[in-house]
Design brief:
The two termini are about 20 Å apart. The chain has three domains: about 90 residues; about 90 residues, no CATH class; about 130 residues, Nucleotidyltransferase, domain 5 (2-Layer Sandwich), CATH 3.30.420. The protein is globular. It is of the alpha+beta class. Strand 5 and strand 6 form a beta hairpin.
Amino acid sequence: MEVENQLNKKIKRVRSDRGGEYISFNEILIIDGFSSIEVDKCVYVKSLEGEHVIICLYVDDMLIFGTCIDIVITTKSFLLSKFDMKDMGEASVILGVRIIRKGYSIILSQQRYVEKLLKKFGHSDSNPVSTPYDSNSKLVKNRGDPVNQNQYAQVIGSLLHLMNFSRPDIAYAVGRLSRYTHNPSQDHWQALARLMKYLKGTMNYRIVYSGFPAVLEGYSDANWISDSDETKSINGYVFTLGGGAITWRSANQTIIARSTMESKFVALELTGSEAEWLRNFLVSIPLGTKPTPSVSIHCDSQSTIAIAKNTSYNGKNRHVRMRHNVVKQLQKYGTISIDYVKSEVNLAGPLTKPLGMKLICRTSRGMRLEPIENDK
């Protein structure tokens, strides 16, 4: 991708010269030859004489990608003639994420956001710690009065933004602590303070995309019920492309798994469904590799993989049988392939459980979440 620009769209609708009716942003792009892709209606593509341009729309902001500068300039001129917009030039910040170009690499950074977050909530001078969550911590629901609930909710909301955009390494800790937002105790505040101390020592972590390998691959994991205050296992997945993590998720499962194998299979089905969406997305944009290869999903459970590759499911649990059918179809049509990876190099590990310093560092590097000293 040679060119990327950012526009700030102040209004979404303009008055047509024909009859005074309002025409939506979508309709105007369609008239100009753009088409929205099926899997994401906020992404528009247009091809003209072998060149391609892509518009990614998010509320009042948009990014424009093009294979040459001419088609980008033409697209910007068209949009500026139709809408009250501000041309922000080459994209440097989008949705609070700083975009840094270093050689052939693109780096996503939220260091300044973390600095403001720590200062706002009084942790600028905290002593750093090596892990975001204490594995020996046994948090339970607060049965008493909440402790400073409003501020707790503010901190969690800020951390969710950070985690979702650039910091998969804190996904488990943020997800776990967010469960107590409505009624936090002093123990929950202590665990939250530890997470802030971890951010203090890792505020210069950024995701680096080098462009290699240019294939999509995923990692799947689940942590079966870990303590007495939990009733459901935790799903986790992460996908990488171009060398860095592009999407990840950490969330409670919707069903109660009866074993480690069941919990990991539920996670595998969820990861497979996400792989299908991502693969369809890459197929829909004109710059993706054609034909799009199967998405390799790495799982650290041999028994789960064996069941997934078995053409028939012999278990009695209906919820697993249904998920087995989904995974079987995804493999049959070449959407995904499944292989084994050791637990210590499973990049989805930090999204499902607290890890020690060594594993946190190893999995972070695997996602290309690295400390970068120069923010220029």
